[in-house]
Amino acid sequence: MECKREKREQNMKNCNCSYEPCARKGVCCECIAHHRSNNQLPACFFPDEVEKTYDRSKTKFVEISN
């Protein structure tokens, strides 16, 4: 996915983030940078039912991957 605001609409087709006030939705490089700085993974790494809990930790990712 391209990291350009012009591609936001296209990227939104693959974005399952349910956090409504998020200004980074569809701007993947900004989203990844934000979550990385918080030691997290972005929503697109999680199934919808897990994403909705907002637990984006690496621990949770490993837990659901096993």
Provide key terms for this protein.
globular
Give a summary of the structure in a few sentences.
With 66 residues, the chain is mostly helical. It contains four helices and no strands.
Q: Overall mean pLDDT score? A: 92
- What radius of gyration results from the CA coordinates? 12 Å
The structural domain count equals 1
Number of strands: 0
Largest sheet: none
Compressed to H and E, one letter per element, the order equals HHHH
Account of the protein in words:
41% of the residues lie in helices and 0% in strands. With 66 residues, it is mostly helical. The chain has one domain. The N and C termini lie far apart (27 Å). The mean pLDDT is 92.
Topology:
Blueprint: H1 8-12, H2 28-37, H3 48-51, H4 58-65
